[in-house]
Amino acid sequence: MTIRSTHTTASIGLTVVALAFLGIFVALPLVTVFVEALSKGIAPYFSALVDPDAVSAIKLTLTVAAIAVPLNIVFGIAAAWAIAKFDFPGKSILITFIDLPFSVSPVVAGLVYMLLFGMQGWFGPWLREHDFQIIFAVPGIVLATVFVTFPFVARELIPLMQEQGRDDEEAALSLGASGFQTFLRVTLPNIRWGLLYGVLLCNARAMGEFGAVSVVSGHLRGLTNTMPLHVEILYNEYNFVAAFAVASLLALLALVTLVLKSILEWRLGYAHRSAGH
Predict the structure, then answer these.
(1) What is the dihedral of CA 232, 235, 239, 242, to 10 degrees?
(2) What is the pTM (predicted TM-score) of this model?
(3) For residues 36 and 269, what is the distance between their CA atoms, to the nearest angstrom?
(4) N or C: which end of the chain has fewer CB within 10 A?
């Protein structure tokens, strides 16, 4: 057997294994979601989506994402700019903290917030005295979501900014541009596609987060249930059509995210090739 035929056989075998894996663990569950959601027809499907509790869960999910994602954009840009463009004591510690949500279970993060802001937590008496509730309310859900999603923008921008170096910013500053002007006219255009990519991943994770949000939400139906929590409640009640109907919205979000991700990956690759020329 020649080297070429061995290479062809190996590539075909690996392709078949990869496609089989994707079919079993990705495509089949995704198809099952839509099949189960539409198993009793279109009317029950849309009825489940317009149910007041479902509408409340959808609105809360969008609201939390609308708050958490912009906060992470600000943090991600600031952290990436500081790490990539400057040298300072504690730089490695900052990078480690950015990676923390990747290594800590979201459930643990939720328990930490309970310890800090719960009624029996460290700040619980002060919060109760000032009639301000974080746990089992929207602020707690936002905090938990911000924690689990804050690495995405920063982690996408750090290597991109490091690869670009500091020459463009230093040239702009030497010509009299202010720091804000340098960021707006030099740094931001150079990172725009990477920033959009990070925002896309951050938003997808924010809408789909379950573990940390489950701990701090209290599962108050119609009040603090996000879409993933609402799906769990419906499924536990054996209301499978409604559960899969709401889950199908999350699945559609995943599909849209994949399409946009592919477009941005192509655009980033094109930008890098253009920069190389």
Answers:
(1) 50
(2) 0.85
(3) 38
(4) C
